UniProtKB/TrEMBL annotation:
The lineage of its organism: Bacteria, Bacillati, Actinomycetota, Actinomycetes, Pseudonocardiales. It comes from Pseudonocardia kongjuensis. InterPro entries: GntR_C, TF_FadR/GntR_C, Tscrpt_reg_HTH_GntR, WH-like_DNA-bd_sf, WH_DNA-bd_sf. Gene3D superfamilies: GntR ligand-binding domain-like (1.20.120.530), Winged helix-like DNA-binding domain superfamily/Winged helix DNA-binding domain (1.10.10.10). Keywords: DNA-binding, Transcription, Transcription regulation. The keyword Nucleus does not apply. This is GntR family transcriptional regulator. PANTHER family: TRANSCRIPTIONAL REGULATOR, GNTR FAMILY, UXU OPERON TRANSCRIPTIONAL REGULATOR. SMART domains: FCD (SM00895), HTH_GNTR (SM00345).
Amino acid sequence: MSIEVPELEPVSRRSTAEIVADRIRTAIMRGTFAPGAQLGEVDLAGRLGVSRGPLREAMQRLVAEGLLRSERHRGLFVRELGPDDVRDVYLARTAVERAAALQVLAADRAAAVVALEIPLGAMRAAAAAGDAVGLADADHDFHAALVAASGSPRLRRMTDGLLVETRMCLAAFQQTAPPAPDLVAEHELLRDALRDGRTELLLDRLAAHMDDAVARILAAMPGAA
């Protein structure tokens, strides 16, 4: 007995909605759309040069990701992160990056160190140029590369969302960032501990890195304890 297999459609390129979601996600991440800002469909459709159908689909994706919130009869707004959100984002990041670091330490550390040199080089260049956005992008890429080196697609997916939320925090409170040379040095120390296979030192430095970021962000947030 034979089973008929339906004709398979060719894999299509990325949909317009996916591309639009990426553009809006990046704008939220970099602070172009501030926390609490309302996003109007007509304005966004015009700026992005797309119809409202793909735009609505893209915005619903971002609602599902937790980056936008929908208010009945009012529209869509960029989600605002409070003190508890900041603590929770960094708690989750610490857990995910700790797990990734342990996987890397048990596997090919040398390849991971090589991968980390790319964002580290970008961090140094941005710091020297006084490019705050470029520095934040490279910082983001460093942590994404660390998790990617673990080989875990699930850890990587979790990291993608957490890093966007992290950038939302940092974009809202940019004045809390440490001096650029200090930030570069922190990441070089993480790289060094990984390169040398010093497990406890790497985990301690990773936790301290996250704790310092939380303290800096909360210090700038009105009403944060």
